[in-house]
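Good morning C.,

I know you're traveling, so I'll keep this short. The sequence:
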Amino acid sequence: MGTIAANLQGLRSRMALAARACGRSSEEIVVVAVSKTFAAERVAEAHAAGQSTFGENRVQEAVTKITELSDLALEWHFIGPIQANKTRPIAEHFQWVHTIEREKIAVRLNEARPEGSPPLEVCIQVNVSGEASKSGVAPGEEIALAQAISRLPRLRLRGLMAIPEPTPDPALQRRRFALLRKIKDRLAAQGYPLDTLSMGMSDDLEAAIAEGATMVRVGTAIFGPRNR
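The tokens, ready to paste straight into the viewer:
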């Protein structure tokens, strides 16, 4: 068994244990394999091992891979900060965007989404740890952005996303993810039919699963360490 295939098998076992510990099924949690910096051949290797959903945060690199691997019918998620001048290639090539934090970006993605394509599935990024260096709306600001997105016909708001500060403290990990879950519940109570919590990565996915993650974004645990 190749390294990526073995890593995916180990990840699935790890997720199954985490889900079982909190009375959930790992079948309800999507793995977004974060393939940034890895060659298209590695993505194809992961696909051969049963992985079909991939995340990228560098537009030019991603578009090259998406084009090269178009025959595999993969699902592509944009998971990085969005510059206004990159909204068109994102809207044209991706099925999901996890990192909307400004109405201006949402409007530009809506305008650039090709006519006849299904709506772009989107999440609002929330800065649950309050770090000045992190993207995302502050808790409480998500309501106005959700209202703005709901008026855009080529976007479909699916849920929330967060990247808390790295910490080895499982209790702190869970508090950050619990906050995102509570914000989602608050929006749902106001009539937004949200079904997605994009939270948890290689080092904290157990805490995220315990707090209700429906998508985990995993790179290192699948592809190995990145060359910086």
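Safe travels,
E.
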